[in-house]
Amino acid sequence: MTREVGATDITPSGGTIALIGRRGEGWIPIAPAGAREDWLHTAPREIFGTTALGDLAPVTGAPPYAQPGEPMALHFGRSVDMSRVVREDERGLVLWVPSGAGRLVPTTPAGGGARSVPLDQRFRSAWVMRESVWRGPGVLRVIPAGAPWSVWWFWNDAGEFEGWYVNLELPHRRSTEPGEATTRTHTRDLVLDLWLAPDDSGTVEVWLKDADELEQTVPAGRYTEAEADGIRAAAERFCREIVEPWAWPLSEAFEQWRPTPEFDAPLPLPDTELIRELRAAISDQ
């Protein structure tokens, strides 16, 4: 059944989504006129969430490249997801997060998730970092070099492709410290997301996710109104530059890619000084 633009829903994880348009038919504007995303590309080091980062450099698509099969720790502020490199080239990183991959995630002191906290308190609460694992089928993540987003390919338990999740995030910075056992990149989640779903009519639905959460970051002091508008502008640019022309990485048929059993083996969190520091942290979300 084809849904009307403006329809709303709740995701399995409890987030709010709204259907804002379809590819080829336009979309409801996301950002106000004149909103600028410049600050996303010049965000200060502190926003990445920890002091023990060592040397970091922007991910620009230039060599040396990570090698296929290499473990890579994805740091989102103080949160961490473990992944395995599929490939890296001048366009960016392609990573696989296998089911059971080690994670470090924020919870309430009692162990609850973010959505167990009322929306108006979600960005004002203290969070305790706890170890977890990636639950459900593995996910392919593509991180275009220098872009304030990554694109995630989702499959269901039966192995059927479900859609593309666009995670708005700061452009990644790569650790350049020599001798590290696990390569790592650092970013910061920007709250707002997009969900792209194949439509019964043969096109792609564009859903805006967690707009209500982004609104709450301003009174909570996480972002200024201009910064929040910059995040909205990044989502708008993704629709204009990637969705509408179906540009890379959407143009590459990653939905046909499947890992080998060896590649799909779970990855534990590395036992490093940085991970130990993050485990002990009390964090903002």
From TrEMBL:
- The source's superkingdom equals Bacteria
What positions does the domain DUF402 occupy?
Answer: 116-240
Q: Which InterPro entries match?
A: DUF402, FomD-like_sf
Q: Which Pfam families match?
A: DUF402
Provide the protein name: DUF402 domain-containing protein
